[in-house]
Task: structure prediction
Amino acid sequence: MGLTFLSIQGLSVSYGGKADVLRDVSLDVQRGEVIGLIGPSGSGKSTILRTLVGLLKPRSGTVTLDGQVVDYTSRASLRGARDRFAIVFQQYNLFQNMTALRNVAIAPTLVKKRAKADVEAEARALLARVGLAEKVNAYPDELSGGQQQRVAIARALALKPDILLLDEVTAALDPELVGEVLDTIRALQRDGMTMLIVSHEMAFIREVASRVAFLDQGLIVETGPPAEVFDQPRSPRLKEFTSRILRH
Amino acid sequence: MGYDLIYSQVTGHVPYLLGGALLTLQLATISFLVGWAIGLFNASILHFGPHPARLAVQGYVTFFINTPLLVQIFFIFFVLPDAGILLSPYTAVAIGMSLNAGAYLTEIQRAGFQSLRREEMDAATAMGFSVPQMVWYVVMPHIAKTLYPPLSNQFIIQVMTTSIAAIFAVEELTGRAYNVNSLTFRSMEVFSIVAVIYVVLTLACSLALAVLGRWLFRVKARIV
Amino acid sequence: MTDRRALMTGGAAAAAAAAALLTPKDASARPLEDVLRSGEIRVGVNPTLPPRALFNERNEIDGFEPEVAAAIARKLGVRLTLQAVGSPERIPMVVSGRIDFVMGAMSRTSERAKVIDYTVPVHSENYGILAVQGRGHTSLQALNNTDVTLAQVRGTTAIPYIQRAIPNARVLLLDNYPDRNRAIAQGRAQASFDGIDSVRFALRPFRQVQWEVTATPDFGVTYSGLGVAKNNHSLRNWLNVALYELHTDGTIESLWEKWFDGPMFTKVPVSPFF
Result:
């Protein structure tokens, strides 16, 4: 492991004048690492991802990526942040009026002003990589949930992000469709993609994550390798959480 | 002493009336497109813009919805010249109708913004879309699709509204109907022909809009 | 998802309305005896053509035509009901029997007479040029030029004349005479060729402009009668007799002078034969 790739220091986020959703969260991520974010609902896991990608404004704290501080204060500087992070949402969030191909190709052409022909060739390759070569011209409402989520992953990859953020990407899927999406993520892990994964699929997190962070009430309570966190929880809250999860 | 319909005095004028129908269509299309652009811009401001800009848009909408179109065009046609702005009849009517349609289309499209899928907007934001890009690529197709019926209704309303142009020296269908009527006194014949032209015109327009909607936005409208 | 059904319904409704208009079942003009029996005569006047007819300060219809109509009603011994009509609907109103006869710029043309019957003339209609003073727009030749725009009122008798006699001038068709006058005052048009009978009255609000009115009597004078439904001979014959009396006893001329600030440009020749 080399230098710290992503460093989150003292990040606090609040919205609507309520108490902080994230409180003084710090997390270091090395290049190629896969971080599993676990914790009960409302613990702030998704908030971390949404803040990194600029959907929420941090109240305080700094995010440093590859030695550069990410500036979340202005729209212009946010562009920079969004170049580095790409997010995949629980509800896929595909553009309903666009084909799979266009969903994948639109941001690189529009936001990064790249040549349309190049981007489309890449987009086809990405869709093939997630096993949807046949579906390039399908619209979201013609695809299953699993297929839509794989298009969403291809769309995120098309931005060539440094870090891929996966926000409960299997939570909205029918159980029989979860496998295909998890396979796609496994393949990304093998390719060395740095990822932050929020998930309730504990077995999957244990399998792919290099480290796991446990959040509760906006705080990172414990971090460590999966085996440590799942098998030897130190804090009482994590103990309670794992025992509840493992009973299922 | 019933009235005998005699169309022969009028049939020679039908090509002239059809020429007016073309002008009607042109005026309706221009005012709809400009009004739609105004409406989209305004609705974007109402959704994304700062407070003073929102107030300005609301003022515009309130003013144009609560005054008659006739009065608005009268102002542009007859009052602006006293301020040194002399617009041609066609331009004055096109501007008046566009501004008026802009107010109604702001209201219609505001509803479209309110029904936006939050998730698609999040995705666009996260991918770095600018506000105009978001409006054009995400909001607009959504509006066009979900609001297709009221939008095409507004277009049909524009077609009907063009008849007001006759008052301001524009020789569209209704204006030409008046002209033929005063020449022949065959009111019933003239206006029944004009009614048929309007019906054909609006049915043709709604058919064209349905085809266009299916082609552009995958709006699955049933076509006749 | 265009609401095709609603549109079809709308179209059907429009067609039904048109059909209703075209087959006026109970629409028939009333012969003289029906008018007498009802004790009421219904007369259409056009209050957008002052001082032929206008709304006075008490918001009642007043003017030259209502006073002539009142004189007619007195002779007939019935109550007068005035109905305000505009140019497009005045003929259908008479044909369908909703009014018994119509006044208001009913100048006779052979084309119009195919649709409606006329009584003997009530007054003459005199044509001339209305322009801004000192620009030389004082003859039809001067107007017959592509640089000249004539402001005219849509649906008036002058238009076919202009197409025939001043074909090179451009024509701007407006809705009413005040708008026409305003258009000339604002420079949208240079002149107007139209009736000049009521021009003194109409130009009152435009005092800031120096107007020039040139009569063109050589162009021909038209006559306005009362418009009666086709073949309503009993009513038309009686009206002819009544008008003869109103002409010979000076009623019509004195009412004209009262409302138009001067005598008729061309006197109506009165004949005992109809």
User: Anything to note?
Assistant: Chain B is about 75% helix and 0% strand. Chain B has a mean pLDDT of 88. Chain B touches chain C through 50 residues (CB under 8 Å).
